[in-house]
Amino acid sequence: MRLKEDAHEARQASVTARAIAARLPSALARAWRLGWRADRRCVLVLLAGTLVCALLTAAALHAIASLLAHLLAPGDAAGRLRDAVPALLVVTAATGLAYLADAGSRLAAARLAPQVHREADLAVIAASTRAELGAYHDPGFDKARFAATEGAKKSGELVGGAQGFVSATAQLAAATVVVASLNALLLPVMLLAVVPRVWGAVRAAQITHATAHRNLADSRLRGVLAQYATDGSTAPEVRAYTMSGFLLDQYRATSHRLEREQYAGARRGALAQGAGDLLAAATTAAVWAGIVFLLVNGDMSVAAAATTVLAVRTANAALTGSVRASASLFTTGLYVTDWATFIDTAPAWAMNRGTLRAPAAGPDLIEARGLTFTYPRTATPAVDKVDLTIGRGEVIALVGENGSGKSTLARLLTGLYLPTQGTITWDGHPTQDLDPNTLWQTIALVPQDYTRWSLTARENVTLGRPRPGGDRAVHEAARHAGADTVLAQLPHGLNTSLARSWWGGHDLSGGQWQRLAIARGFHKDEPTSALDARAEHQLFTRLRTLAHGRAATLFITHRLANAAVADRVIVMHDGRITETGTYDELLAAEGPFAEMKNLQDRRADPTDAVVGSAS
Ligand SMILES: Nc1ncnc2c1ncn2[C@@H]1O[C@H](COP(=O)(O)OP(=O)(O)OP(=O)(O)O)[C@@H](O)[C@H]1O
């Protein structure tokens, strides 16, 4: 089994070093802004600590030069030692304080990193919640969001990387100044060592990132296989279909492929890094040779030579640190660039709707004209030129075979999707022009694939929007949905956590979860619900009474007998309305609805039961 690498990943993997380097400053600037927004004091402490540390390093090196000059000067030993004491004190104080300043800036970076991660994550969450629901059907959006979430995780590391880079570079600058003041000739050769090392490290980082991107599909597949094999939700099927052997084999095969690719990437990276280091070693050797040459020719004193050796060593250590930090910054920057790309492009998927307030009590009239909706990257419309008028208080049953467009139509009528063609209006206003928040406040939705929120029972009904009646309203909604018996058996009542896989969480059966999901619909003031197709007949009867005098109620049902409680039944086929009328009218017409109903009466609903057989 192998998932095909898609165009997005292939594009990411083939990004050139130059293109990435060009985007890096803007990613860094963004991280800086995130840090500034998260904790200014920390940013200032980090910068101040780093700069002070660099200045103190330079001061210590200068003091070492003076110390050596005093110690190596002609004269008696006691006098030379006495003269050297002030420089010695400066060296000790500067070195100690430099360590303190460095520790301070590291601490600030450690404090800032999680805050930057939080801000980056919040930016992704905010951009996602601002997106049109339709964006979730665009694979481009989902991929970009996934990459951005990974990038947000790395954004914290960017702070540590940036701190290390600035610190090492500042120390390098300090050592460079000292070397330049002792002998300017050594400077260009010493700086030459930077180039091959940086090239090697950056090339290695690019190879690692490209390898990771190329193998994204396999990495995901491996994760999914492990989850299938171990997750509680798949455990019954894994056992019943004796799938564990198959899953383990697939896991091993995918892992072997991944490991081979990763090793090949690591080998190429190590070669690039090694080549860079080798060149750097050659230039460093040239520096040592230069010092010896100057010393032998008498162009440099022993004290100056000794200080130069120290400065070059300090510069080399700083250089190594700086190269390592820039390589890690580069790698992290690649991921943070994915984050920045999503934040930049997310507005294209954002909701672009009007500000007109939707009627607080829901619309009196919903009208669809030529209503069409085509999912991204699909050829045929899911809802095709539908004309429909729904009045206040009407109860509508949407029926039709799987994939006929019922859910899509319900989402269009409730303003969750906007039409790709045609119009849908609420009291004459296109849903596009209505403020989405005021619009959705008037609808209640019980989708077929409702969420089992890992929250308390109360929050599972209120979804964070308690009604003035408080818990009374929750119990009332539960009673209407037939979920009162579910609540009654919970060990801590409404406070019971339904986070089933967490400690102290309480699990419910599928049917009990369904009732809670329906209670959510009743908990909202004006239920215009797209109700789950397999809810109980009793529930539909209650729905009928509740819907009276309120905004329209729309429910999707596969059990056609439930449609009897509706004022009107709408039959869909291939995105179009093929039949409409009251339940009795449709049965009498002996058309497709009557045919489906007869078929259903003759056989049990296959989705209703799981039958076990033993032989
Ligand atoms: N995210 C999507 N991307 C592409 N096509 C989709 C997507 N969701 C649904 N479709 C397609 O749109 C059509 C209508 O789907 P819809 O979910 O509205 O049908 P439905 O009548 O509610 O089906 P069911 O009774 O099985 O729930 C189907 O052909 C389906 O394959």
Task: Name its key features.
about 625 residues; alpha/beta; ABC transporter transmembrane region fold; Rossmann fold; 3 domains; five-stranded mixed β-sheet; four-stranded antiparallel β-sheet; about 60% helix; about 10% strand; binds adenosine-5'-triphosphate; ABC_transporter-like_ATP-bd
Helices and strands, with pairings:
Layout: H1 7-13, H2 17-38, H3 40-72, H4 77-129, H5 139-182, H6 186-192, H7 194-214, H8 216-230, H9 235-240, H10 244-296, H11 302-345, E1 365-373, E2 383-391, E3 395-400, H12 406-413, E4 421-426, E5 429-430, H13 436-441, H14 457-462, H15 471-480, H16 484-488, H17 510-523, E6 530-531, H18 537-547, E7 553-556, E8 568-573, E9 576-581, H19 583-589, H20 592-602
Parallel strand pairs: 3-7, 3-8, 6-7
Antiparallel strand pairs: 1-2, 1-4, 4-5, 8-9
Helix pairs in contact: 1-7, 2-3, 2-4, 2-5, 2-11, 3-4, 3-5, 3-11, 4-5, 5-11, 6-10, 7-10, 7-11, 8-10, 10-11, 15-17, 19-20
Bound molecules: adenosine-5'-triphosphate (ATP).
Adenosine-5'-triphosphate is lined by residues 137, 375, 378, 382, 400, 402-408, 448.
Protein name: ABC transporter ATP-binding protein
GO molecular function: ABC-type oligopeptide transporter activity; ATP binding; ATP hydrolysis activity
Transmembrane segments: 43-72, 84-101, 172-195
